[in-house]
Design brief:
It contains five helices and two strands; from the N terminus they run E-H-H-H-E-H-H. The chain is mostly helical. The longest helix has 16 residues, at about 45-60.
Length: about 90
């Protein structure tokens, strides 16, 4: 799972995603809530809504994959380093 940055979109993760997919890995690059629309979208949304986007996709992947590695860019990387241990233990 690849998490894009605060001002970004899933597109910014495409090269890493393609490389991982070519190597045979299942790849998911979720769109954070309120991103990919207007510039005002992320400003009008609280971080808990963005984080719920990540948790929802992690849960979906957990039903299909026996292990999940999460990587992030910018804000996505910060979230990964501060993620509650519960998501790591699933």
């Amino acid at each position: 799972m690849l998490i894009h940055g605060l001002g970004g979109t899933p597109i910014e993760m495409r090269y890493v995603a393609r490389g991982l997919a070519r190597a045979g890995h299942t790849v998911n690059v979720p769109q954070l809530a309120s991103h990919c629309g207007s510039v005002e979208g992320p400003r009008a949304t609280v971080w808990q809504v963005w984080y719920a986007s990540v948790e929802r996709e992690h849960g979906r992947m957990a039903s299909q994959c026996h292990s999940i590695i999460v990587c992030g860019l910018s804000l996505g990387a910060i979230w990964i380093s501060t993620t509650p241990r519960a998501i790591h233990a699933r």
